[in-house]
């Protein structure tokens, strides 16, 4: 029998909504929920909802410090079922982080079993691990049963959960927080609780104190993994004032002497949030790539404590320089951002400074104090009322018993007979018979007296703001004593130091192994390096239509200077040039050389030399080599030329006389002192031309005479006497060169 097709019901009404509006509305709702309920911590207790729910769930399971541990699976299940309707793994991961002493400065969860390690290994599954709260968590929850904070309905309305915890511990800054929301993020490093309490006590005394004043106590972050913070005091002050900045944290190391003058470096603390195994892998990788020439080997000898051994390449290496090269290339130095983006009053995301952060915490402690005092006041008033009833019942016990035995409705009768309130009558009727023997007048009167004294104290606190702050101060003082510098948990772990100043050139050199290489440049401008100093380049292969341009010897640590037709000098690192068997890569890949410009010369930068640079129009000047070094890919403009004019020649200044030859094959010799020395410019005219321009230039010593090479590579020379007819002054036209001068119009001199 065929299926009967039921026509779909017509929807009652269809609404047209512009897609943009619908998306904006929904995305805004998502963004707000991420900011409020997932990524940003509350400024008052320093917790995100998941952590708050975990702690409250543990509180309901009575997992106080010192009690028996309970399975993590039970805790995660209860938290997920009652408060946090998200993935079980997400809840367990959050709980694990609260228990890891290398992730949390003051762990809130006391874990038993495998909770992961600093190598980045995963914790055991939640069916194998157990947990309970720590003293810090107990402090955060203290007063929650005394109406210390507001409660709200949980996600399904079946029970209630706290909006915020009473937070009797400066958790926001002490444990820090990391989070990425929509369009905003937070990153708060951990701090020392005792220092925060000292700063808070100062803030109670001087409520208008600025963040800068609080730095007297809060020196900077205090990471669970220790390390050394190498930022300047100004940078730290700036970060805490604005709420944004970063901290450079380095590993702690020491030199350990071995036999016969050998030594190793032992790293005992690594920066916060760095996985040890990944760090060692990275160093090993750099060693393979020969990027750490001062380091011989690295190995991990850690047990409970961190112990990483770094061996130098040789015992003559400077340990500080070796570590500097590691700090620059690996996570042994880490930048930890500070972005104090928190939820103020649990609602408004805002980037705050240190003072405002502590201010929020203190204001919250005062609110909790007032709520707890009011709760206790109501309790005492209720008890005093009950005690008044008990006293009347005690003094008239027989009559009370008679009324209860004989009357159908004893409550109104009792109230009428003894002028009792409903509360008192109810308390008398609910009293157990065994309590009768305890009803002694003295006891009732003593309890009444004590309660009245306590009530007086509470009323005094509620009536005076000064008293309230005094109480908050006492509370903060107790926390300070619990986590003081002499306690194992409270002792500062991160120390401060200035980063050592090292010679930058020495550091640069420390990154590259010094080996001889031959730099080969093809006619079309492709560059490569070959290992060793290779004399015979006849076997080299080039791309089609390309051939050997020129080659020279260098070392892997050398810097090259390239002079281009646009009059600019460019710097290249030999270490970054392609090696191997290929054809290399175009020089343009390493520098920003304009399309219309081409290389004139390439040579090793030695420093301290002088060059004579000249343009096609025959203008030039002497420039110092150190003025030619540019730091950017864009190069450094030295010889000013406008198209179609271009830079044409460069020669090293080795002597006192200049020889210049033009494309018209006319040569001129004149004294070098007629050419000025400049750092940049057009220069002065070296030779005058009717047509064409400058072809080449050379500087030589008058005593030794001028030398040149012909096309076959044979060397010729001429003394000043023989050059008499070519001698003149700068900007003369010159005359045809001596016999045997090469047709190429080049002197054949190459810069070494």
Automatic annotation (TrEMBL):
Topoisomerase IV is essential for chromosome segregation. It relaxes supercoiled DNA. Performs the decatenation events required during the replication of a circular DNA molecule. Keywords: Cell membrane, DNA-binding, Isomerase, Membrane, Topoisomerase. Belongs to the type II topoisomerase GyrA/ParC subunit family. ParC type 1 subfamily. Residues 40-504 form the Topo IIA-type catalytic domain. One of its GO terms (molecular function) is DNA binding. The record marks 127 as: Transition state stabilizer. It is a peripheral membrane protein. The record marks 48, 84, 86 as: Interaction with DNA. It comes from the Bacteria. It is an enzyme of class 5 (isomerase). PROSITE patterns: TOPO_IIA. Gene3D superfamilies: 3.30.1360.40, DNA gyrase/topoisomerase IV, subunit A, C-terminal, Topoisomerase II, domain 5, Topoisomerase, domain 3. SMART domains: TOP4c (SM00434). It is found in: Cell membrane. This is DNA topoisomerase 4 subunit A. One of its GO terms (biological process) is chromosome segregation. The keyword Glycoprotein does not apply. It catalyses: ATP-dependent breakage, passage and rejoining of double-stranded DNA. One of its GO terms (cellular component) is cytoplasm. Heterotetramer composed of ParC and ParE.
């Amino acid at each position: 029998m065929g299926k009967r097709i039921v026509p779909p019901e017509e929807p009652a009404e269809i609404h047209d909504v512009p897609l943009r509006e619908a998306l904006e509305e929904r995305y805004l709702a998502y963004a707000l929920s991420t900011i409020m309920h997932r990524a940003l911590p509350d400024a008052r207790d320093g917790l995100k909802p998941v952590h708050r729910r975990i702690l409250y769930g543990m509180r309901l399971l009575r997992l106080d410090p010192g009690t028996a541990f309970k399975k993590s699976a039970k805790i995660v299940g209860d938290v997920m079922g009652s408060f946090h309707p998200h993935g079980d793994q997400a809840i367990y991961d959050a709980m694990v982080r609260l228990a890891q002493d290398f992730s949390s400065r003051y762990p809130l969860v006391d874990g038993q079993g495998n909770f992961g390690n600093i190598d980045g290994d995963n914790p055991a599954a939640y069916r194998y691990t157990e947990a309970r709260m720590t003293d810090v968590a107990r402090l955060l929850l203290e007063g929650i049963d005394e109406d210390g904070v507001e409660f709200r309905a949980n996600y399904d309305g079946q029970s209630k959960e706290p909006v915020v915890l009473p937070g009797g511990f400066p958790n926001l800054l002490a444990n820090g927080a990391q989070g990425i929301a929509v369009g905003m993020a937070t990153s708060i490093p951990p701090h020392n609780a005792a220092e925060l309490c000292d700063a808070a006590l100062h803030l109670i005394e001087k409520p208008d104190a600025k963040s800068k004043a609080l730095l007297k106590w809060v020196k900077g972050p205090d990471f669970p993994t220790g390390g050394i913070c190498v930022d300047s005091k100004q940078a730290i002050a700036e970060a805490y004032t604005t709420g944004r900045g970063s901290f450079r944290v380095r590993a702690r190391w020491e030199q350990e002497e071995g036999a016969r003058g050998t030594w190793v470096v032992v790293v005992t603390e690594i920066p916060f949030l760095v996985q040890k195994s990944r760090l060692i892998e990275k160093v090993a990788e750099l060693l393979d790539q020969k990027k750490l020439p001062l380091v011989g080997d690295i190995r991990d000898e850690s047990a409970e404590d961190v112990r990483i051994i770094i061996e130098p390449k040789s015992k003559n290496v400077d340990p500080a320089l070796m570590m500097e090269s590691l700090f620059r290339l690996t996570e042994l130095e880490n930048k930890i951002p500070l972005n104090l983006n928190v939820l103020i009053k649990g609602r408004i995301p805002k980037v705050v400074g240190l003072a405002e952060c502590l201010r929020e915490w203190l204001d919250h402690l005062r609110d909790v104090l007032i709520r707890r005092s009011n709760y206790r006041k109501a309790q005492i008033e209720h008890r005093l009322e009950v005690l008044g009833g008990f006293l009347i019942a005690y003094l008239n016990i027989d009559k009370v018993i008679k009324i209860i035995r004989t009357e159908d409705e004893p409550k109104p009768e009792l109230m009428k007979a003894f002028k009792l309130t409903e509360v008192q009558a109810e308390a008398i009727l609910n009293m157990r018979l065994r309590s009768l023997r305890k009803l002694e007048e003295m006891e009732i009167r003593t309890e009444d007296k004590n309660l009245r004294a306590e009530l007086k104290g509470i009323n005094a606190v509620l009536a005076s703001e000064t008293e309230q702050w005094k109480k908050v101060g006492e509370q903060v003082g107790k926390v300070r004593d619990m986590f003081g510098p002499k306690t194992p948990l409270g002792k500062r772990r991160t120390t401060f130091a200035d980063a050592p100043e090292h010679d930058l050139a020495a550091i640069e050199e420390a990154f590259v192994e010094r080996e001889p290489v031959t730099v080969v440049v093809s006619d079309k401008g492709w560059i490569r390096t070959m290992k060793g100093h290779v004399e015979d380049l006849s076997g080299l292969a080039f791309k089609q239509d390309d051939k050997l341009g020129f080659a020279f010897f260098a070392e892997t640590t050398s810097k090259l200077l390239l002079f281009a037709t646009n009059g600019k000098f460019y710097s290249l690192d030999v270490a970054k040039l392609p090696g191997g068997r290929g054809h290399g890569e175009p020089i343009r890949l390493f520098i920003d050389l304009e399309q219309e410009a081409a290389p004139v010369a390439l040579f090793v930068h030695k420093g301290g030399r002088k060059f004579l640079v000249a343009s096609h129009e025959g203008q030039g000047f002497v420039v110092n080599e150190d003025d030619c070094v540019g730091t950017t890919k864009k190069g450094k403009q030295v010889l000013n030329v406008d198209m179609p004019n271009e830079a044409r020649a460069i020669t090293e200044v080795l002597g006192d006389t200049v020889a210049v030859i033009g494309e018209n094959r006319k040569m001129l010799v004149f004294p070098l002192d007629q050419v000025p020395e400049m750092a940049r410019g057009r220069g002065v005219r070296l030779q005058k031309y009717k047509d064409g321009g400058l072809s080449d230039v050379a500087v030589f010593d008058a005593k030794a005479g001028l030398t040149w090479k012909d096309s076959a590579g044979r060397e010729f020379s001429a003394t000043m006497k023989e050059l008499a007819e070519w001698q003149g002054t700068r900007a003369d036209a010159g005359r045809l060169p001596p016999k045997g001068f090469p047709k190429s119009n080049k002197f054949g001199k190459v810069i070494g």
